[in-house]
Amino acid sequence: MLKQLTSAVTALALVTLGVGAFGGVAAAQTPAGVVTSADIAPTETPENYTSWHQGASAAGSYASTTSGLLVTGKSQIIKGETALPAVADVLSYAQSSTIVSTGDPVWHQIGFGLSNGTWTTLRALSGQEAGNWITSQPLNGLPKGGAAPLETLLNGLHGDLSYLSGGFYVDTDKRATVQSYSVNGVTTSFALPSIADPAPATVRVGADQIRPDETEYLGWHDGAAAGGSYVTTEAGLTVTGKVQVLNGEENSSTQVAQFVTGLGIEATGDVWFQVPVFYGAASEFTTLRATPEMAAAGTWVTSRAVPGFAAGSQAQIDDFALALGQHRVIGYGFLVDSGKTATVASFTANGTRTLFTPFVPRTDLPGAGVGQGSEVPPPAPESTEEITPGGTLPLSAPAGIFEPGELVAVSLQLTATSEAPATEDVSASDAAGTGATQALGAAGAASDPIPLGEFTADAVTGAVAAEAALPADLAAGAYRVLYQGANSYYWAPAALSVSDDSDPGTGEPGTENPEAEGPETGGPETPGTQTPSGQAKPAVQVLAQTGGESPLLPAALAAGALLLGAALVLRRRGVSGA
């Protein structure tokens, strides 16, 4: 097979490198990622030669597991190089080959071809690389099947490489699990990581969202449709069998041995995991089942016959993965058998935790409740914070008030304003702009709410943590923040205050409007200004408000000076005429 590929693979070689790139094993090995059975082509072609593929014509089987690639012979799992070194560097390339495996013996497999038509595959048992290697074709005076050290086999070879590959071989009737393979400083891992997501996404499903049959496969449904029942209770979904509660998906996973490590269930009563699978070129079907206790031990049952196993057979998940070959998981769920009853609070699979309990918002926190918060007075504030129009406002609502993942509308509710009613007298401190406020009623919502946006509650806890932009034209006054969900609300504990100084409608920051009212102190009247009671304002009051000069003050001072000067002149005249 390799000889036939020589010319085709030569065309795939992208570049020829010198000794520098292949002159020895790299000091630090670079991870090349995890390769799964779905990444390994089942047959060898010129197009896939430089990718991982099965090179043996009498192919064995292989499957990905959390321990590594489970391989039964006869199998050659190899990958061709796209950048070809000089012939002299094949020795260092082969010497860099390392295998980590368990089970039956695994062989190194280094294949190469030369431009003069020579080709071979060199093999040595893992752990015996320093000894003899076997050549699959006549090489350097040795016959087909001859054995010698690498140096002897490769000494004095001439010409250019037409292809080069590295990998491993498991012989007929052997079984091994390969964790990793390294060559030329690059390590490829074949061990699937277990799924242990500490914070999966959370959704909630009620009995009314589970379809009664499999007319439509995708989504939650009863795959048995055998007359069982299910109902939502405070404890979860109470199921009386026979019922198969399944969430159908197009392709949940191509690695069933890894997929089942992410399953979890909170339940009381007799319940089984269910994992439906398509496998093979004809998309044959089976369902793998296990109780939680069986799954913890890696033991599963197949509902239908699969290669090597009759219907109802029990085996380790790795063995089922090997029997299924290329496959895809098409959903997940649980089974409650005939005559059994179970209550399922939650089911976790594929990075999602599905809750079957109804959501009950917390109401034990101050400011939290069920219904519309705008219809309920906010609790007394625990503190008061100054905010600035156009700035940002940190948002924070505790866990448990809102359902995970739901949209929460946040708004400002005006509870007090800095403007006094026109029918009341204003105290000296109020008129001077000291920030005294008028309460607008116990319910607090005396004006339309100011929306700050919608924010998504945390997918696990339901807490809200975000920032909102404050309107640039936010008026002076006192505010409270209201978080409103679909069925619950939360009043933030702090009161928020916008002072007159920061109100964009009052002019320069830190100054009062020249037309604002101030305290009465008596003195000459200022034309056109009135006190709250309708009396004329004294000019000194305006001076006190603005901090600037009154236009009457220079005239008053000049008039006083003239009167004083006239009095002095008259006094002198009176004295001289006496």
TrEMBL record:
Keywords: Signal. Residues 1-21 form the signal peptide. It comes from the Bacteria. The keyword Signal applies. Residues 366-391, 500-543 are annotated as: Disordered. The keyword Repressor does not apply. NCBIfam families: LPXTG_anchor. This is LPXTG-motif cell wall-anchored protein.
